[in-house]
Specification:
Number of strands of chain A: 11
Shape of chain B: globular
Strand content of chain B: over 45%
Largest interface: A-B, 25 and 29 residues
Largest sheet of chain A: 6 strands, mixed
Number of helices of chain A: 0
Strand content of chain A: over 45%
Order of helices and strands of chain B: EEEEEEEEEEE
Structural class of chain B: mainly beta
Number of helices of chain B: 0
Oligomer: heterodimer
Number of strands of chain B: 11
Helix content of chain B: under 10%
Chain lengths: 114, 116
């Protein structure tokens, strides 16, 4: 059973517009959520995170929103740039203490069109 | 990135042969992890280590073993490779001594393993 789900395998957005990537989870024990970005032939790189005690975290063009009651989080990228074209993974862990046993979604391939 | 080197980067081998993948870090992180990435599944945790000679199983550990004899090296072994183990394998590290637990994992660039 997939505890973290990204139901959109792909997303295409015009350059300069907003990209919204979505993620749902089923395990209410998850305490911390992360987004990773992955380019081909490279490892995932950390993008932004949010604790379950918050509902929003912002870092430059990237904002993550968490709706605990709906068990849903989203990543907003605005404005979208060509370099944002990549696969985005959301991930969750029950605690940041100790070993971080990340549970990943399937990923969403974002394409930014010029 | 972040002082993580995976070797080899690519490997093709035959069913039934043993395979060992190496992860080497230069950052003195306490925790090391092995994940596999497959279409439709994202990344899934195979095994992880919380110190020298201290390891534990992840979500998809069957058919894999690991060893960590030094802080900087974490080995993943497929004792008898099967075609279902064809995948991209990623090593990750976390837990910088003296820093908070909030530091996210950093990943290596992966090993593409094909088992024919």
């Amino acid at each position: 059973d997939q505890q973290v789900k990204q139901n959109s395998p792909s997303l295409s957005v015009q350059e300069g517009r907003i990209s919204i990537l979505n993620c749902d989870y089923t395990n209410s024990m998850f305490d911390y959520f992360l987004w990773y970005k992955k380019y081909p032939a490279e490892g995932p790189t950390f993008l932004i995170s949010i604790s379950s005690i918050k509902d929003k975290n912002e870092d430059g063009r990237f904002t993550v929103f968490l709706n605990k009651s709906a068990k849903h989080l989203s990543l907003h990228i605005v404005p979208s740039q060509p370099g944002d074209s990549a696969v985005y993974f959301c991930a969750a862990i029950p605690t940041r203490q100790g070993a971080q046993k990340l549970v990943f979604g399937q990923g969403t391939r974002l394409t930014i069109n010029p | 990135d972040a002082g993580i080197t995976q070797s080899p980067r690519h490997k093709v081998t035959e069913t039934g042969t043993p395979v060992t993948l190496r992860c080497h870090q230069t950052e003195n992180h306490r925790y090391m992890y092995w994940y596999r990435q497959d279409p439709g599944h994202g990344l899934r945790l195979i095994h992880y280590s919380y110190g020298v000679k201290d390891t534990d199983k992840g979500e998809v550990s069957d058919g894999y073993s690991v060893s960590r004899s030094k802080t900087e090296d974490f080995l993943l072994t497929l004792e008898s490779a099967t075609s279902s183990q064809t995948s991209v394998y990623f090593c990750a590290i976390s837990g910088i001594p003296g820093q908070g637990a909030e530091q996210p994992q950093h990943f290596g660039d992966g090993t593409r393993l094909s088992i024919l």
